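Notes continue from the previous slide.

Worked example: a multi-chain complex. Inputs as given:
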Amino acid sequence: MSANENRRIVLASRPEGEPKPEHFRLEKTAIPTPKDGEVLLRNLWMSLDPYMRGRMSAAKSYAKPVEIGEPMVAGTVSEVVKSNRPEYVPGDIVFSYTGWMDYAVSNGSDLRKLDPKQAPVQTALGVLGMPGMTAYLGMRNIGMPKEGETVVVAAASGPVGSFVGQYAKLKGCRVVGIAGGADKCKYLLDELGFDAAIDHRDPEMPKKLTAACPKGIDVYFENVGGKVFDAVFPLLNQFARVPVCGIIAHYNDVTPPPGPDRTGMLLGGILRRSLTMRGFIVWDFAAQSGDFYREAGQWLREGRIKYREDIVTGLENAPEAFMGLLKGKNFGKLLVKIA
Amino acid sequence: MSANENRRIVLASRPEGEPKPEHFRLEKTAIPTPKDGEVLLRNLWMSLDPYMRGRMSAAKSYAKPVEIGEPMVAGTVSEVVKSNRPEYVPGDIVFSYTGWMDYAVSNGSDLRKLDPKQAPVQTALGVLGMPGMTAYLGMRNIGMPKEGETVVVAAASGPVGSFVGQYAKLKGCRVVGIAGGADKCKYLLDELGFDAAIDHRDPEMPKKLTAACPKGIDVYFENVGGKVFDAVFPLLNQFARVPVCGIIAHYNDVTPPPGPDRTGMLLGGILRRSLTMRGFIVWDFAAQSGDFYREAGQWLREGRIKYREDIVTGLENAPEAFMGLLKGKNFGKLLVKIA
């Protein structure tokens, strides 16, 4: 990288189905100059998250899509390198949504200062950031696990799923995690203390899930969809709650799968078992973010919540890492170390 | 009917799909004799409701199925003819779940005394009974309509739907009712004061629903399913609520309809628009029944809630009337006048 070079990765075209390298383009521009009231940020860490697949599509959603030719969005942890704002000095570490790039300017309104003494700064992208908050607020407001209940979470070794399961353990629940592969399952049992772990690649997954949930399922934190949802749904108990947080198994769907159409069966299950299915994004409960930072920060310091990172080095490697994320190749919170 | 004859209609066999006359059997027995602590009831009115289709099936549900050879269940309004209990005297009018029969005995634990001066006694089966309470509690706890919001309800001229729509009008909402045929639609507009009425038999129903909901849909009270749900779902706004109360369009389904399978699309919609879909039965909110009786009773006396009855005479005509109910042939609360 030359002295005055700012790399950024833009959306080259919209994928139909699986994103491929040609849907991304690395561009080089000059490092921007902060104007009055602005700061210049150098990105240190960038988060890769499943929601970014949604932003690559033009379909109507809770957030505007990324435009063709515009940088991909991302939460980032950055160092302030120049500041024209009194509240920031060079060397400050901040969280922001700058995107897939080396440098960015900000007017300060979207920045949150981080204290490196409290926790490693990149946790602001994971366990103490949007993924952790998503798990915490979804469970607190929708899942509402009660002592003795059975909680199932898929993508359970990821930053959201692992927090969901640990949250439920703290509330006294039986926790069953679903993950891809023996290593991840071992991690759920040995490191996170889940009660059972099931490999979704196992052809007997539905049968094993049934065996792992002898009293049925009271909370299913949905971040996967697909065959995991299919296996979970018949096991949901009367009054079960399903926070719908993501459906990564469907993000690359081009057309709906063949029939039969189970919409009526789904409605019938919701009706007969008084189920609650509720979609959310973390910002739906933004008013409670202070509670999250306080409580999760304390849990982390006390070692009651653990986390795992999967670090990729170099902005240029972000597209490949992101494509792998959609296939479950990461193990833990996927981060790009930029500088 | 001879002097000591008690007719009752039992489940002769379980229907696959649509119930037919052969699934019911009229039997004659002796009028039962009340023992110590029991009362003898003569049924005056019997309610016919869609939920009874579910009880005819052996499938797991919130209530036990009716056994083959046992009388069909129903809410009834009865006259006490003999009483071995101090709190009842002959001539008292009571609500109970005796079933499809002329006479029944009760130990009193399942009876609720009715005051004929307050309202016509058969309203205990409709606007002031389970259907009205279902509408009231579903809207109060799940639909939660706010002033200015758009509320859509199907089967809107029925006892649940008409209460749902009128409840929403009382809360200041725009109310769109869906019903089968011009007469029912006219009733929604002229008698109940709905803002729009749409005939679900109209091939342009989805287009007309879209036009009737220029600001989208905030609450959809689901008691139908099928093509009405399909038309409603794309119109649901961010944070819309869907109390799932019934899916009459599916009760006779033998196999799910052909594909594509839209489960993933449904989950995607729930996720992207932060929708809440929640199934319930009226007893989920039993603790609030006192509020219903008080508030709905007052609304009825003040003429703020209207209702319509569809009366069939003779217990022997109940099976045909019930089969018609599942096809939407009734217009208003379907009642059987027994004596």
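Summary box: Chain A has two domains: 6-126+308-337, 130-284. Chain A has a mean pLDDT of 95.
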